[in-house]
Amino acid sequence: MAEKHPLDLHSLTFTGQLSGRCKIPGDKSISHRSVILGSLAEGETRISGFLRSEDCLATLNIMRQLGVNIVEDGDDLVVTGVGLHGLQPPAGHLDCGNAGTAMRLLSGLLAAQRFSSTLVGDESLSGRPMGRVITPLTQMGAQIKSDEHTAPLEFSPSIQMKAIDYHSPIASAQVKSAVLLAGLYADGVTTVTEPNKSRDHTETMLKGFGCNLQVDGLKVSVHGQPHLRGQAIKVPADVSSAAFFMVLGLCHPDADLLLENVNINPTRDGVIKILQAMGGRLSLENPRTEAGEAVADVRIQSSQLRGIDIPEALIPSAIDEFPVLFIAAALANGTTRLTGAEELRHKESDRITVMIKGLQLLGVDCKELPDGAEITGGPLHSGMVDGHGDHRCAMSFLLAGALRPEVDTVVRGCHNIDTSFPEFFTLVEQLGMRHQQPVPVVTIDGPSGVGKGTTSALLAARLGWHLLDSGAIYRSLALKVMNDDLDPANEAQLAEAAKALRLSFQADGQHARILLDGQQVNDQLRSEACGDMASQVAPIAAVRQALLQRQKAFQQPPGLVADGRDMGTVVFKSAPLKVFLTANAEERAKRRHKQLKEKGVDVKIRDLLRDIEARDHRDSTRKVAPLVPAMDAHVIDTSDLSIEEVLAQIMNLVGQHVKV
Ligand SMILES: O=C(O)C1=C[C@@H](OP(=O)(O)O)[C@@H](O)[C@H](O)C1
Ligand SMILES: C=C(OP(=O)(O)O)C(=O)O
Question: Record-annotated residues binding 3-phosphoshikimate (predicted)?
Fold first, then answer.
């Protein structure tokens, strides 16, 4: 599968009321299974409501590569089954993309075929543990080659699968399903017992296809060599996708939402129980059974959620919903505690680390536990969080941003949302949310004399991006104050002047021509007097506020390099890359001395050093926007580096964080 762009910045904002009915797309787990079992059946299987997400399409394509005819008929899929022994050797590798379910379920199937095959996946999937299926399948006689129990997985032709009685150390529907699928090819009865009940869609569907299968509590037994008969399958709405809208509705101040036809299978309804225990007004209307699966319409009304200790028994039935439950916890009153959920570290990302890091960045009081997390609800801060290419983490952070319109939340790493929920952005827009893809910003902050200005100008030129020299904006105001003889102590007058400032920047090679009231003022802005005045007017809160929107307006495609002192901490809090340059005061005094000497100005280094130290103290201790690195800034000490060396380090960071 082609590598997708990992930056992929998105944000959602929402201020309106939330009401109406919402059609959530089909269940991912049931969709995977419907094409696999339909392929192994005799006759035709018609699937309605199949989830056309990248994960399920990967499974569908693999079944086609194995010789199965699958066609679209309107919204339905029609699978012409080839029978248990009718699959054909594939021409090339079989690509599962990001889908753990595809890889683990198909391992059970391919381990039992009389031809060889290889399953591959994307970077995330290639790091996920496959030993959990390799172990039982090997006991059944499969020969699987892999490097450290991770993908690619190479299957040798099978001679004959042996029925086994397998006690799985983890509650995993993927493991259980892999063994049951391989068990279809064994002579005799294959049994899987799990420590806790995981989702049971494979069992339900196998029975529907006419397989002889018994469930006895945590034990499932399948009789090998069945004749599966093609079925009509109606895929209900995915409760895992519905979970995002449950949390959205509950945490929204004015919501009454109906999610239609949601799968509420008792092995999947943990999220509903947990949210109800947190005080969520969430009710099930019109409960019914369709194609062996329990479904209902789920009504969600605004609620004040409270923190709880999540019962460990509910973990398997809510395993994919913890990213969004973490958001619910961050918006609830009090503390939520989750333990016994180490499995979350083995999903598309380490979901404990990714979610807790992101929440911490948004200012939430929370911490990781080895097997869970502790989260105390409270206000959110602005920031850019990383979904790390995990669809569920990315969607969860986006909704947190939508629920807190007063802060600016940008989420990167959203490129895998289509693996489970391609309609996500369309649906949230239908509900009235504003979806934006913000222009990337690199902020370069630091005190004077660290090489900020030159570095930023060179970086903007190299990237072909816009440049904001925010210092020049403050200096221009200072110049205006001096030219028009304004009173630097009259804050209201200064704020008015800041708002009315007639300032423009014109590109001129690597630099910009700065025009104030139509006159080029670059040289005047660099004078010591102007610098001193700038440092007097810049700390005034009303001035900073008046200039804020003006600076934000520089964020234009294809990107912006913003040079200043509070670019990463105040103006562009959600920038994907924040750099803070430092250098020791002696070095900065030396650099300034050299600059002034070149201009024919004779000053003593000692005096410059004293001024620099005084200014550093003033800047870093002032109440409004003090000069400090943002929490997520990359600090580079430029004392012993040339401009080229600094630029090389920043370009490297751009490569990692912005233009990957
Ligand atoms: O069987 C399935 O369809 C799934 C089982 C779960 O994984 P585990 O079996 O690893 O718990 C779940 O996380 C995954 O999204 C889908
Ligand atoms: C874990 C998930 O899927 P998979 O294991 O199929 O990649 C998921 O969708 O949350």
Answer: 28-29, 33, 172, 174, 320, 347
Tell me whether residue 546 is in a domain: yes
Residue 393: what pLDDT?
Answer: 98
Determine, yes or no, domain membership for 1: no
pLDDT tens per residue, range 282-292? 999 999 998 88
- Among the bound ligands, the one closest to the CA of 56: 2
pLDDT for 323: 98
pLDDT band at 591 (very low <50, low <70, confident <90, very high): confident
Instruction: Choose one of 436, 465, 496: the last residue of a domain.
Output: 436
Q: How many helices (H) and strands (E) does the chain have?
A: 21, 31
Residue 1: predicted pLDDT: 41
**For residue 325, what are the CA distances in angstroms to 59, 86, 377, 401?**
28, 43, 12, 15
What residues does ligand 1 touch, defined as CB less than 6 Å away? 29, 101, 172-174, 177, 198-199, 319-320
**Considering only CA atoms, which residue is closest to atom 12 of ligand 1?**
320
Question: Is 225 among the annotated ligand-binding positions?
Answer: no
Q: Which residue has tokens 């294809």?
A: 558
pLDDT of residue 619: 79
State the pLDDT confidence band at 5, using cuts at 50, 70 and 90: low
The answer to whether the CB of 554 falls within 8 A of the CB of 504 is: no
Can you tell me the ipTM of this complex?
A: 0.98
Range of the domain at 70: 28-234
Q: What is the Å distance from ligand 1's center to 104 Cα?
A: 9
Q: What is the mean pLDDT of residues 540-551?
A: 90
In a domain, 111, yes or no: yes
Residues of the chain above pLDDT 90, percent? 82
Q: Does 350 participate in catalysis according to the annotation?
A: no
Atom from ligand 1 closest to the CA of residue 176: 9
Kind plus residue range of the DSSP H or E element containing 470: helix 470-483
The ligand with the least distance to the CA atom of 29 is: 1
